[in-house]
Amino acid sequence: MQLTSIANSERGQVYRRAVRGLLVRLRSGRRTLCSVVLFAAVFCACPGEAWAQSTANEYHVKAAFLFHFAQLVEWPSDSPNLGSNSLLLCTLGDDPFHGDLENTVAGKQIGSRILRIRHLGRSTDARDCNLLFISKGEGDHIPALLESLRNAPVLTVGDGEGFLAAGGMIRLFLDGNKVRFEINRPAADAARLRISSQLLLLAKYVIGGNGRK
User: Fold this and answer.
1) Which of 2, 60, 98, 203 has a Cα-to-Cα distance from 210 of 20 to 30 A?
2) Contact at 8 Å (CB) between 23 and 57?
3) Is the pLDDT reported for residue 73 higher than 60?
């Protein structure tokens, strides 16, 4: 029992160092191959999770997740902002990242597109986004918002209870002190978004199959 506890503690330290290293690489501008390999190493070691020990650290980790969701999803050719070579990551509701998105992922390159950040004050602008993070603070408004985006090529990500059941595509959640994610594949398919097999395998659970429980 003691040896198991020691092993779990050491593994947790490895995960935390890996996530911190990923965030440092994102901030310093070292991109793509190095950060993708690190992402895969962390999440393949324990599928669909990363360690978070405080609310601030939780959203550091979630910012890294959003960046890699953008890397591992393919948008259709008629998606918004394609002509401007931008990939627009938006937040709706209170911004729980408090500048982390600007500090860690803004300006990073995703294929041939540059990642831009926009904080929305109203849901009517959501269709202009490529990836939309919906704060759980939106509460009862979330189902109507997701219904308004149904079949639109907008990757919807949230961290509220019932997010996938309401039609959201990816839900981030805490399990103890670990950040995990689950995917609603049929919702993404309906919006013509192609989620990579790698991301599907890394998810804790996938509605529609190809995930690990």
Assistant:
1) 60
2) no
3) yes
